[in-house]
Structure prediction request, 91 residues.
Amino acid sequence: MVVFLDDDGRYLEWLRKHPDGFVVNAARRPRADYLILHRANCHTISGTPARGSRWTTGDYLKACATAEAELRAWARDETKAEPTGCGSCSP
Ligand SMILES: [Zn+2]
Prediction:
């Protein structure tokens, strides 16, 4: 798995290369109360962000992996919590 921080270009490239992968959106310092698991093709975490927002350079990071289990293990290591599934892409 890979964590993208301050690198929207490489993050979006990873999404293009791994359309069947998974992404956890987390705070820059991951917290148990904000860990959202998405499918890589979820429209809420790709494409052009709403004006003024960015993917990996603001308050959030993106942890990406081809295996959902890797992201769950990462979330437990970082915060001792499980990520919550996105309501839009239902991973
Ligand atoms: Zn989603």
